[in-house]
Amino acid sequence: MAKRVKKEEAELSDVGKLMIKNTKEDDKLKQEILKDLKKNPKYKEYFSTYNKQTVEAFIKNYAEAKWRYLKYGEMYLKKEDEEISRYKNRAERLFWLIQQKKLFNLQCQFRAEKITIPGIELCEDFDYWEKAIKTCPFLDRVSEEEFNLLVEFINSGAYDYDNDYEYCDWQSYQKSFGDDDWKKELPDWYDFFDDKMGTGYLLDLPDIRGEKELKYTRLASKQRMEDYKKEHPEYNPSAKSDPRPMMGYSDDFIVDFIKRFDDPVLLKYHALMDRSDYDDSGYPELSNALEDLKNAEIPIPVAEGGSWQEVIITSMAEHEVRQLNKALPIVFDEYLFRLDNNISFGYSDAELEEQTRTRKMIDDHHRKSVLQGRKLNGEPEDLNF
Amino acid sequence: MAKEKQPKLSEQAKKDIDNTMRREKVIKEITSELTKGKKYKKYFEKYNPVSTKSFIESYARRKAQWLEWGPNYLQRDINEKLRFREMASTFLWEIQQKKLFNLQCKWRAGEVVLPGIEVSWDFLKWEQKIKTCPYIDAISQEEFDLYKQYMTSESYQPKHFMSSWQGYDFYRTEYLNGGESMMPTPAWYVYHDTMMGTGNLFMLPNIKGDKEQFYLNLVKAEEDEKAKKSKGKKSKKNDVPAIVKAINPNFDGKPPIIPDYKTKEEFIKKFEDKTLLKYFKAMEQEDDTWQEDQALDDCLELFSYEMIDENMQIEFKNPDDLKDSIFRAAADFELTQITNCLDAAYEEYQMKASNGISFVENDEMVEFADTTFNSIINFIKEQILHGRELNGEPRNFDY
Q: What's the CA angle centered on B111, arms B110 and B114, to 5 degrees?
């Protein structure tokens, strides 16, 4: 019997095997917790003060709960951290966008070879300082005028409620790769800044340094490809790929397939089981707005809107702007206080990890490629070009 | 090397593993059918084979889930659609609750005698079993019309969760003294009294109730006296209140331990490390926050699927409070749906009543009324009879 079960388990798919492995591990932990609660003498006195029948029920309930805490607690803890001072954190993140834009402007000038910056050798070095913006040594302190500009931006129609500004690539400079439309891809905040500060001309400066680096990295890349082909003679990039379209997993494919080949009742099951908890189609901002609403400690005034989804999103967007207006001056005061008293700006562990990762990427890949390209081009293997 | 001894799996884990194996078998069968079945060949040939392989894997997994859970989801959906109709049927019985309540006022004043009603607590039992209450007539058309009028009026208010239908004392005090108690009078009662002039029933004297209280006070005085005398000699078992002993003779006298937020927090602080306390606090919200979040999700689900089906407009009625507006819009929708079902519910009621088909109470309610609740009432009756004895009167309810 046990052998048969073992054999059946061995024949399962990877997902099936993983599910069974997880079930066994979970069960082991659950049983350990239960055993501890039932047998460990340290609880004896405590439980003896309660009704026996309810103690049994409590142990069962608590064991299940403790297992959940141990398994998912860490994940929830992170989630909770995010919720703390939601708007204060958002205001802080937005505040540093002032410095990101100033860094981006320096990048434009560096690429045009109008300036040199000690510590910046390659264009990609700006990616590192994007991650370490709070301690970037070659940026002026944020001025009152710059701060007011950010506040003006937040209160303007240009500020986008659902744009998760945390995840933008602030130093991504795409000019070398794209067409004239690349400016449209820049963040709204950059447009706003350029418009008010007259710095838009920096985007039209030539990307001399970037193109030089590109020349070298392309040489290196070509060489790598040739090396690869030598090592893998079977590799044939010119072989014709299958011209047929790809199948997807979207609703259209699923529904079409059921209609053609399967029991129509599956259409009902699919509609009921695969639908979201609420209708957010066409409203990607709704889930964020709802999270904000649930966390709101004060009543939120109702905004104008067409659909209920729009009403919720707009109400929460307006609420966010009101809260940011309160939080931003506090963030600016704290910033000035730290600078005036030489108190450094800290980074979270995750931010420090990101900095290390970015530094390593630049050194291991980009820097290496440029140096290799220089060599392949018969030039000295340094960055003096 | 010694092999680590694997603990025996729990029954639940065995069940989970069996389910996984069964599901995986189904997935395998579906995958095999999709891969080898001739009828699919032509269709799949239109697409890039890398993508068809992924599609088949994904489809098989989803189909297995649909087959496993689909019938449950479908049933839930059907129940959801019948929900308002069932609620309308349940609401109808509020008419009977009010009629029973009016009768209670008269009984307390000694204006009527009801066979089987010995003490005022008996009315609380019939509250639980209103559908089979023998003291009230069937719902008339006029009574139904009045109730429907109430349901569609501005006066409608859902019953406060603390209020019971036959809770006399709080409502009478509220009527006579004004103000609002912790158990507010149901809005339906207020509406009924206003429209039908039955509020004056509260003006009737509470003769029976006052007498019951008199006898219970005598018993209480006797118990206090006994307690004073036996002070210091009591064992734990004797600490158990008489009413609890009457309901559960095997009760060990110790308080129950309930796995609520507070107790778990206390337990963790006492026995676990600080990390677990952090996890606990991050994962367990106190009930009210969690319930509100859940209620908000429920409203949006209602907006998304049911209100759209009904082509209902969602109105945000409180301009100062989005959350409140959402809750109100959902409540308004539900109320409209229920009132729309009232006529059908009444028709069904009449059909059953005229054909002698009995109305069935919820099993749990009947069980509660006939067991636990009955034990409490019997205990009170015993106390009253004992009070009668203490007053030198016969052991009966003829007072």
A: 80
The dihedral through the CA atoms of B114, B120, B125, B127 has a sign that is positive
Complex ipTM: 0.73
Distance in angstroms (rounded) separating the CA atoms of residues B220 and B216: 6
Q: Nearest 10 degrees: CA dihedral of A43, A49, A52, A53?
A: -100
Asked if A15's CB is within 8 angstroms of B276's CB, the reply is no
- Quickly list DSSP for B154-204: TT--PPPTT--TT-HHHHHHHHHH-S--SSPPPHHHHHHHHHH-GGGGGGS
Distance CA A287, CA A273 (A): 19
Please report where in the chains the tokens 């029973």 appear, as a residue. Answer: B100
| Residue pair B95/B144 in contact by the 8 Å Cβ criterion | yes
d(CA B260, CA B254): 18
Closest by CA position to A131, among listed A329, A327, A361: A361
Tokens of B97: 């609750």
Between the CA atoms of B380, B383, B387 and B390, what dihedral angle is there, to the nearest 10 degrees?
180
CB A206 within 8 A of CB A213: no
User: Which residues have C-beta within 8 Å of that of residue A167, sequence separation ≥ 6?
Assistant: none
Determine whether the interchain pair B62/A254 forms a contact, defined as Cβ–Cβ distance below 8 Å: yes
- The two structure tokens encoding residue A343: 């108190």
DSSP A202: G
Alpha-carbon span B92 to B130, nearest angstrom: 11
State the Cα–Cα distance between residues A321 and A302, nearest whole angstrom: 14
Task: Say yes or no for a CB contact (<8 Å) between A279 and B279.
Answer: no
Q: Yes or no: say if B20 and A11 are a contact pair by the CB < 8 Å rule.
A: no
State how far the Cα of A219 lies from the Cα of A237, in Å rounded to an integer.
19
pTM as predicted: 0.75
Structure tokens, B107: 């009984």
pLDDT (tens digit per residue) in A227-277: 998 998 888 777 777 888 898 888 889 999 999 999 999 999 998 898 888
Q: Cα A227 vs. chain centroid, distance in angstroms?
A: 35
Could you say which of B73, B275, B314 has the minimum Cβ distance to residue A273?
Answer: B73
pLDDT by residue for chain B (399 residues), tens digit each?
A: 556 666 788 999 999 999 999 999 999 999 999 999 999 999 999 999 889 999 999 999 999 999 999 999 999 888 888 899 999 999 999 999 999 999 999 999 999 999 999 999 999 999 999 999 999 999 999 999 999 999 999 999 988 888 899 999 989 988 888 877 788 999 999 999 999 999 999 999 999 999 999 999 999 999 889 888 877 555 555 566 666 666 666 777 788 888 888 899 999 999 999 999 988 988 887 666 778 888 999 999 988 888 776 667 788 999 999 999 999 999 999 999 999 999 999 999 999 999 989 898 888 888 888 888 888 899 999 999 999 999 999 999 999
Whether the Cβ atoms of residue A377 and residue A166 lie closer than 8 Å to each other: no
Judge: B61–A15 Cβ closer than 8 Å, yes or no: yes
Task: Give the number of residues written for chain B.
Answer: 399
Residues in A touching B279 (Cβ below 8 Å): 69-70, 72-74, 76-77
Separation in Å, CA of A148 to nearest CA in chain B: 29
Instruction: Give, to the nearest 10 degrees, the angle between helix B11-36 and helix A14-39.
Output: 170
Cα A365 vs. chain centroid, distance in angstroms?
22
